[in-house]
Amino acid sequence: MRRFDDPDGTILIYTPNEWQAFVAGARDGELNLAVLAADAEQARAS
């Protein structure tokens, strides 16, 4: 996986357990898109 804002950058690697935890959290509604958008905006500004 790569960052959408740096497609030629470092490849992000996750273990199967990390990926399963992410998917389970997203499925359970723990993924807060507003926080992710704010983080991305802050990263672009710096």
Automatic annotation (TrEMBL):
Cross-referenced InterPro entries: DUF397 (IPR007278)
Positions of the DUF397 domain: 5-27
A Pfam family hit: DUF397
Domain of life (superkingdom): Bacteria
Protein name: DUF397 domain-containing protein
